[in-house]
Automatic annotation (TrEMBL):
<dbReference type="GO" id="GO:0071973">
    <property type="term" value="P:bacterial-type flagellum-dependent cell motility"/>
</dbReference>
<feature type="domain" description="Flagellar hook-associated protein 2 C-terminal">
    <location>
        <begin position="593"/>
        <end position="856"/>
    </location>
</feature>
<dbReference type="GO" id="GO:0005576">
    <property type="term" value="C:extracellular region"/>
</dbReference>
<dbReference type="GO" id="GO:0009421">
    <property type="term" value="C:bacterial-type flagellum filament cap"/>
</dbReference>
<keyword id="KW-0282">Flagellum</keyword>
<comment type="function">
    <text>Required for morphogenesis and for the elongation of the flagellar filament by facilitating polymerization of the flagellin monomers at the tip of growing filament. Forms a capping structure, which prevents flagellin subunits (transported through the central channel of the flagellum) from leaking out without polymerization at the distal end.</text>
</comment>
<dbReference type="Pfam" id="PF07195">
    <property type="entry name" value="FliD_C"/>
</dbReference>
<dbReference type="Pfam" id="PF02465">
    <property type="entry name" value="FliD_N"/>
</dbReference>
<dbReference type="GO" id="GO:0007155">
    <property type="term" value="P:cell adhesion"/>
</dbReference>
<feature type="coiled-coil region">
    <location>
        <begin position="249"/>
        <end position="303"/>
    </location>
</feature>
<keyword id="KW-0964">Secreted</keyword>
<dbReference type="InterPro" id="IPR010809">
    <property type="entry name" value="FliD_C"/>
</dbReference>
<keyword id="KW-0175">Coiled coil</keyword>
<dbReference type="InterPro" id="IPR040026">
    <property type="entry name" value="FliD"/>
</dbReference>
<feature type="domain" description="Flagellar hook-associated protein 2 N-terminal">
    <location>
        <begin position="10"/>
        <end position="105"/>
    </location>
</feature>
<comment type="similarity">
    <text>Belongs to the FliD family.</text>
</comment>
<keyword id="KW-0975">Bacterial flagellum</keyword>
Length: 866
């Protein structure tokens, strides 16, 4: 950079002169800066709008499915006994509920002790032992605690809390209050001593619980009895007792797991049985209309999602399936593969005639040849001469095989290999349509064939078909992880029994099988309940010997098993000692943890909390009802469905109104972003007003915006056919106000007739609510399809392209590139300005230097004449 001297000798305003001389360059730079600023504002405008459109797109995704509208409301005859919420899957109607038992948390109130404060120590309570080892057991988890004579009441509370209990010491009543944090039998707790000192410390703390004191002076629930019961005359006898208990425990848990699996399969088989019979009846009706439709549909069902891109062809009484491959024939036609009964693959080529919009299918001939490929992956035009297994000749070039990678490399004059020039030898399979190949007829698209059959059903049948098929496939595809396939209650056995029953006498035979063939105890539900009760009994028996659970989980004869066995032996011996030596506080009270139990429609359910989720109902038990029942009434939440539609329209209206406003905005005319110098001449309010004028007009008449708006409006105006009748939004009293009646830029917004919150239409008849009350299924099906149309329309506009990213309705990639180019261009012009300024300042510097010399010379001459 040149040294910039500003008129020190000449007195000229060099800075101003240079600025004026480069002004044309500065103007060009500012032009690009303004364009970049305007582009940045445009990006911000699009980002803001895109966020709202994507939000709408995401929200309407769920509206495409019936669950979005299948809203239910429920009432309970006695809200002091239970509260109930209904999900979309809850059945309509009235159900009976009994709350037999409430879940409770384990709770202990300690005996009164002489600790005057939380700082009182065990020693002050009379404890004289050493390390007091305690165990806190909650369900399957056991935690150890160690106390000493110096431990305070606060220390005890802290240790109990760390072990997972809620614990407090009340110095006013001089007692400990201890409870489990969760309700239920599995979450109950016991606190025992692991040694004599531990048992003694518990007694000093007033929390040594052994149950009620009997007339004989013993305690009804001595916590050490369970372990002590395994004690024998010697350690070997004790170990034998322990291992016998392990065997019993394993048998009980194995049988319980088996019975639970059987019970679960039987319950699922009930739904499967009715669904299977329904599905077979639908197949019969299809065949009555179109012979062979059921076999065709069954094949298409098995294809599932692979129907897209698959073809089917009639082959006698069955169908062949062709799946689309990535292979092509020698002319570039896509190949489809069929595998025959001998597991051989056959291919056909799909030849498209774009002019006639048709596709013909031909068998292809498969052949294999040796292919020679160069280093760029291109096949050589001329076949090399094979000298031997290691040498290939191409003209005057020699290629030698590299045993490491199997490629042939060019041999240079010095005998080394040129790794940039190679030939790969491979076997290439080619598919060719024979000259006499005949166009295969009867081939059709699997997805089109499926849609054709489905569309032949009426809406009621279609709904029954969807539900029955989903149930049937779910059961038949389920896996037995506990039961063998030969078990009479395995999925395979129950499936066969139900299918045989239907084959014998149709739906009636299936219903008899499920209900018990006239004997109620033989019904699947009763069998399932009996097995569940037996499993529960086994589980309870296993819980009685839960002390061997950890040992039972080890691999016998392993070191882990041996260590666990010895640990349990020590515990049994300690418990045997403590069985008679431990002291218990007769005043301590313990409330056992308890599971809840309810009956819904006569079926018993148990749980460790008072909350249940059953068949779409969320039940919160509040109080026991005894043998009396309360009723739960569930029905369609018509107001909820109405609000769902209204919320959807409100969101759509907000976005389409904003789009309309942006598209119809006033022109900014000659307004351009301000430079810093221009801003210095204006107030903050003037600057804001100026920039707002530009920002509001950025998307005016934007073709991309117009395209998105048109797509959305077209989707909303589309009609939907339901049961042979066409419906549109106007069918349900939903329409726009039109250009003459709507507020500015709101002509594309939809209003619901009779909407009390809409002053434009509140006085009209509410056709939407009437339709929801009279025929909710039609309203739901219409809204599903309308939402699907809008979802697809927006989705198409948000697809990724070379100019835009995925889920973006504008050309964000293109704008980002343009912004980067502007930055680069501005830097180039800044460089040009700097260079020109340096040039001119250099000239002025030279002039100033010359004038300084001239002045110096004049001064010297003048001195001669003075």
């Amino acid at each position: 950079m040149a040294i910039r001297l500003s008129g020190m000798t000449s007195g000229l305003d060099t800075d101003s002169i240079v600025k004026a001389m480069v002004s044309s360059y500065t103007t060009r730079k500012e032009k690009y800066q303004k364009a970049q600023t305007k582009l940045e504002w445009t990006q911000d405008a699009w980002k803001s709008l895109n966020t709202k459109v994507y939000s709408l797109y995401s929200n309407i995704s769920n509206l495409r499915f019936s669950t979005a509208y299948n809203l239910k409301k429920t009432s309970v005859s006695d809200t002091t006994k239970a509260t109930v919420k209904a999900g979309s899957g809850a059945p309509s109607g009235t159900q009976s509920l009994k709350i037999k038992q409430m879940a409770k948390a384990g709770y202990m109130t300690g005996a009164e002790i002489k600790a005057d404060s939380e700082k009182t120590t065990l020693a002050q309570l009379g404890y004289t032992g050493g390390d007091a080892k305690l165990e806190v057991k909650m369900g399957d988890e056991t935690k150890s605690i160690t106390l000493s004579a110096s431990s305070t009441m606060n220390d005890v509370v802290k240790e109990l809390r760390n072990a997972g209990l809620d614990a407090n010491y009340d110095s006013n009543y001089k007692r400990f209050y201890i409870s489990s944090k969760k309700t239920g039998v599995a979450n109950d707790f016991t606190i025992t001593g692991s040694n004599i000192d531990g048992a003694s410390a518990l007694y000093s703390l007033g929390i040594a619980y052994g149950g009620e004191k009997t007339t004989a002076g013993t305690y009804s629930s001595n916590p050490y009895d369970e372990y002590a019961a395994l004690h024998g005359a010697s350690d070997d006898v004790t170990k034998a007792n322990i291992e016998a208990a392990v065997t019993s425990y394993n048998n009980l848990t194995t049988d319980a797991a088996k019975m639970n699996a059987q019970s679960k399969n039987l319950m699922n088989a009930v739904n499967y049985g009715y669904s299977y019979a329904t599905l077979q009846d639908i197949y019969k009706k299809l065949d009555a209309k179109n012979a062979g439709y059921s076999d065709k549909l069954k094949l298409l069902e098995k294809l599932g999602s692979s129907r897209d891109g698959a073809l089917i062809s009639k082959n006698g009484d069955s169908y062949d399936t062709y799946t689309k491959t990535t292979l092509t024939d020698t002319n570039g036609n896509t190949l489809y593969k069929y595998i025959d009964s001998d597991n051989n693959s056959h291919y056909i080529a799909a030849v498209a005639d774009k002019d006639k919009d048709t596709t013909s299918y031909y068998d292809v001939t498969e052949s294999t040849r040796t292919a020679y490929t160069d280093a760029d992956g291109k096949e050589l035009e001329a076949v090399p001469t094979v000298v031997d297994d290691t040498i290939l000749k191409v003209g005057d070039k020699t290629y030698k095989k590299d045993e490491a990678d199997g490629k042939y490399y060019l041999q240079k004059e010095d005998g080394t290999a040129d790794k940039t020039d190679s030939i790969t030898v491979s076997q290439k399979t080619e598919y060719t349509i024979a000259a006499d190949a005949v166009n295969k007829t009867g081939i059709e698209s699997a997805s089109v064939a499926y849609d054709t059959i489905i569309k032949s059903m009426d809406e009621k049948t279609k709904s029954s078909y969807d539900e029955a098929l989903a149930s049937v496939q779910a059961f038949e595809n389920s896996k037995d992880e506990v039961l063998g396939s030969d078990d009479k209650y395995s999925v395979a056995s129950l499936t066969k029994a139900i299918q045989n029953a239907y084959a014998g006498n149709g739906k009636e035979a299936v219903e008899q099988l499920l209900a018990g063939n006239g004997n109620e105890t033989d019904g699947f539900v009763n069998k399932a309940n009996a097995l569940e009760e037996a499993a529960e009994a086994n589980t309870k028996k296993a819980a009685d010997s839960n002390i061997v659970k950890e040992l039972a989980s080890k691999q016998k004869d392993s070191s882990e098993y041996t260590q666990a066995l010895n640990d349990l032996l020590d515990r049994v011996n300690t418990a045997y000692t403590l069985q008679n030596k431990a002291l218990f506080n007769s005043q301590v009270k313990k409330v056992a943890g308890q599971d809840s139990e309810i009956e819904l429609n006569g079926v018993k359910y148990t749980g460790d909390s008072n909350s249940y989720s059953i068949n779409g109902l969320t039940i919160e038990a509040l109080a026991e009802t005894g043998d009396s029942a309360i009723s739960i009434t569930t029905s369609t939440d018509t107001q909820g469905v109405y609000d769902k539609v209204k919320d959807f329209l409100t969101e759509y209206n907000n976005i389409i109104n904003e789009m309309t406003k942006l598209y119809n905005a006033d022109s900014a005319g000659s307004y351009e972003p301000l430079t810093d110098d221009e801003k210095d001449q204006m107030s903050d309010k003037e600057i804001e007003k100026w920039e707002t004028k530009i920002k509001d007009s950025l998307l005016r008449r934007d073709s991309t915006l117009g395209s998105v708006m048109t797509a959305m409006q077209t989707a909303m105006m589309s009609s939907v056919e339901i049961g042979g009748k066409k419906y549109s939004l106007s069918s349900f009293g939903i329409s726009t106000l039109g250009f003459l009646n709507a507020a500015e830029n709101e002509q594309n917004a939809y209003h619901i007739d009779g909407d009390e919150d809409d002053t434009n239409t509140s006085g009209k008849t509410d056709k939407l609510m009437a339709a929801i009350n009279d025929d909710p299924d039609t309203v739901m099906q219409f809204m599903q399809q309308l939402s699907t149309n809008l979802y697809s329309a927006i989705g198409d506009k948000m697809k990724s392209t070379d100019l835009s990213s995925a889920f973006t309705i504008y050309n964000d990639k293109q704008m980002k590139t343009e912004y980067t180019n502007y930055t680069k261009t501005i830097k180039e012009w800044e460089k040009k300005i700097s260079d020109r300024e340096d040039y001119y300042y250099n000239k002025f510097t030279q002039m100033e230097s010359a004038m300084t010399k001239l002045n110096s010379t004049q001064s010297s001459i003048s001195s001669y004449f003075s």
